[in-house]
What does this fold into?
Amino acid sequence: MKSYTVAIVGRPNVGKSTFFNRLLENRKAIVDDVSGVTRDRQYGIADWNGKVFNLIDTGGFVSGSSDVFETEIRKQVRIAIDEANAVIFMVDVATGITDLDESVADLLRRSTKPVYVVVNKVDNGTRELEATEFYSLGFEHNFFISSISGSGTGELLDAITADIEPVDVEEAMRESEVPKFAIIGQPNVGKSSLLNALIGEERTIVSDIAGTTRDTIHTRYNLFQKEFILIDTAGIRKKSKEKDDLEFYSIIRAIRAMDEADVCLLLLDADKGITAQDVTIFSLAARKGKGIVVLVNKWDLVEKETNTARDYEKNLKQKLAPFSDVPVLFISVHEKTRIFKAIELGLEVFENKKRKIPTSQLNDVMLKAVQAYHAPVVRGNTVKIKYVTQLPTHVPSFAFFTNYPDDIKQPYRNYLENQLRTQFNFKGVPVRIFFRKK
Ligand code: GDP
Ligand code: GDP
It folds into this structure.
């Protein structure tokens, strides 16, 4: 699928977060806790009439003087302009145009990407008149909305998604013939080193084909008679010295790469251990239904005793919970340890993602699991599961037919998922479970 990302920028308290949450409604955002003056960033997947895009709330600021705000906001605006496909510039009708708004507008005017000026808190007719003040900022696209009531948001979303292709259901169901892998992770974990190591060893690169967006490069490989495509997010490497900015860049790029991939090879730095940003990237990939292999790189730097790898993996999986049925491999790109094993695991996960269980076998196994441990009685109702079938989707999805679909709670859902995982191999693949009325 083509990747499309919209970033929301603006000064604190204009209502970015309120707007963001309204758009995502019941699909919860993934919150990335960032240190320093920036408030947590939020990442979400928005769906407007079948048009899907990534939405990023660049965050607010916890404290600081207006000088600090200004520097921080300008940095975020630059990152948004560089890495997103479109920018929502949110302002507040209650305060009118402030100096900080002017400063952000100056930066955005130089951008060639679409900018949507969104005047928020336009809760009534009087405020609508006041909102026209913002036309003086000189942008082409202006929208008046109330994030609290939702008024005006439909028109805005129609405009934002005008150029996005709706999800083609048939295309989404068609499996990639050649698996597409994205190497993702934070800055300095060794992504380019791994890519180079693979290219260096592999002499039979078939071709360089342009990616589906101009920002990714798809390179086709042929290794042990297996073909695969590696997706690289090309572009200038930002030389920002600020750790926080680099992390933000890397997350937006990871999103772009994973949107086009079947399986994500998530690299971590063994020496640093797993961080909040790693978990953010992992959760996004899982939410998007991507296959995942976790590669703990720079294993050469770790002093090893008998149980080091085992303990490391255990700790890692605790941080990744609830989705911890993923392959974890300890590699060293420098010492060329297990880097081809990484590709093999990627291919295995790709096979797991395509796995279709015949209905009779599925029912044999899963109805036995239901017999062994029944769903708890709810409000005096005996919950019966009568039948299960795998849906023809590209993320393994299972529909359980039952008399009380709304009465089955998370623990039982987890039980069924665990049974599916134990009985059939879905390692590295998110699995979806639905309950339907029968
Ligand atoms: P952020 O710092 O830009 O993310 O702003 P928040 O989303 O935290 O909102 C700041 C304040 O503005 C909160 O008190 C919100 O309830 C309020 N707010 C957000 N949207 C609206 C709106 O459409 N109308 C009104 N009247 N208040 C709003
Ligand atoms: P990227 O930003 O994720 O693409 O990371 P790079 O590939 O540029 O690597 C960042 C740094 O980590 C470089 O100095 C690499 O030489 C180093 N590095 C990469 N892989 C390994 C490894 O397996 N072991 C060690 N010790 N260093 C590594």
